[in-house]
Specification:
- The chain has 153 residues and is an all-alpha fold.
- It has two domains: 60 residues; 80 residues, no CATH class.
- Helices cover 75% and strands 3% of the residues.
- The chain contains six helices and two strands.
- It has a two-stranded antiparallel sheet with strand order 1-2.
- Helix 4 runs antiparallel to helix 5.
- The longest helix has 25 residues.
- It is flat and about 55 Å long.
- It starts with a helix and ends with a helix.
Length: 153
């Protein structure tokens, strides 16, 4: 875990440095109408860097190096990661609503072990409700696939 803490904190320090540097570029001072655009990002970057330095100091003093993740802990994470990754990949060819219906149905059945009636109601109902809210009420276009084109949207 020590190596993971050191690596993550180091990357975040670099990211915080980019935030601080760019905030200085756009201005971190106080203007006539209040703080300039870089004021809040600058201080968030400074806080991020300071916190990561504390994490590095704490990890450096730690004498034992426990594993970051065990095989038993990794399995549930991968049960979430792979279906979610596949859903994101399927959004382009199938559209958001069909991909989310497939993801929700698969996930509820595989991980949640819910019955088919509950799976079907949720996997179809939630995307249909989301479609109604975004497409018809708020008029916000979402990625659509062949099914929506076939239905005339």
């Amino acid at each position: 875990m020590r190596v993971a803490d050191l690596a993550t904190a180091s990357v975040l320090i670099l990211l915080g440095g980019v935030v601080v540097f760019d905030s200085i570029r756009i201005g971190i001072g106080w203007g006539t109408d209040g703080p300039k655009s870089g004021f809040f990002p600058f201080w968030l970057g400074v806080i991020m860097i300071a916190t990561c330095v504390a994490i590095i100091a704490r990890a450096w003093r730690r004498s034992t190096d426990t594993p970051f993740v065990t095989r038993a802990q990794l399995v549930p994470v991968l049960k979430v990661l792979w279906p979610a990754t596949l859903m994101v990949i399927l959004v382009k060819p199938l559209g958001l609503y069909v991909a989310s219906a497939l993801y929700m149905g698969f996930y509820m059945r595989w991980v949640g072990r819910h019955g088919w009636v509950v799976v079907a109601l949720c996997a179809i109902g939630v995307p249909v409700l989301t479609f109604l809210v975004f497409e018809t009420w708020f008029l916000v276009p979402m990625p659509k696939g062949p099914l929506e084109a076939w239905l005339g949207y």
